[in-house]
Amino acid sequence: MTQLNFVTHLAELVTGVDVVLCDVWGVIHNGIESFPSAVAALRRFRREGGTVILITNAPRLADSVRQQVRDLGVSDDCYDAIVSSGDLTHHYVAAHKGRPLFWLGPNRDASIYRDLDAPFVPLEQADYMICTGLLDDDTETAEDYRAMMEKARARGLTMVCANPDIVVQRGDQLIHCAGAIAELYAGLGGEVIYYGKPYAPIYQRALELAGECRGQPIARDRVLAIGDSLSTDVAGAHGYGIDCVFITRGIHAGEFDGGGRDGAAQPLFDAPPKAAMRDLAW
Q1: What is the pTM of this model?
Q2: Among 54, 73, 161, 224, whose CB has the most other CB atoms within 10 angstroms?
Q3: Alpha carbon 1 to chain centroid, angstroms
């Protein structure tokens, strides 16, 4: 078993930290409501001179994410900038201007194609496909798309996955995301390009934004990531060489006895994060 360093206050961890890269869904909101203590903690870190970049696997542009979190009660003053997997996917589509694509995802993700020459076509006519999520994530799972993915694999289509998350928490439920379909497609032998955590491009972009905010390049040893997913947040931070705080109340809450201190020792980590907290709080 790995014994985690379990703390209750972010203030215990930010000595020598200039930049916090904070996950969104599961850390500052659950898709239905925001977490006031998390918002207050980020606001306080900024007040102490720190920079906060929200780093999210949301398959939407940053301004759409900003409006979503505003609607959930997350104020603009608790962060400096947002980088999303949707931003990176947008750049990919822009670089493939005019090429016909098949889009699998709900209409709420349409902002990802804003101002792009991106002709949507049926699967049988596409040069590649973009997956932003399930059409109905309240009732469907990736298995509902197996037949579609088999057809795509037979055509040799590349999938661009705009949200590597397998599941996220919506209220008290776990819902499947684009990453679940991408995992299925990869298992069938399909080629998948992932944008978002745990992959390096989203961290590179986040530190570029942080550097712009602070007026100087950012050293990785002065960065702290915060997130609730082992496979995206913790793995991504370790892979990019930055420290990470693991929030236990999110998608892994059931493996941590509800996220309390009694669940702090679990054989889940190849390498432990810097610390674990049940809730993000100052």
Answers
A1: 0.85
A2: 161
A3: 27
In angstroms, the CA 146 to CA 124 distance is: 16
Going by C-alpha positions, the residue among 2, 75, 28, 33 that lies closest to residue 171 is 33
Q: Give the C-alpha separation, 5 to 20, whole Å.
A: 19
Domain assignment present for residue 282? The answer is: no
Say how far residue 257 (Cα) sits from the centre of its chain.
24
**Quick one: 219 and 81 in the same domain?**
yes
**N-terminal to C-terminal alpha carbon distance within the chain:** 28
**By residue range, what is the domain housing residue 221?**
2-86+198-277
Report the pLDDT averaged over residues 69-82. 96
Judged against a pLDDT cut of 80, whether residue 170 lies above it is answered with: no
Helix, strand, or coil (residue 136): coil
- Residue 127 has which token pair? 């040069």
95: Cβ contacts below 8 Å, ≥ 6 apart: none
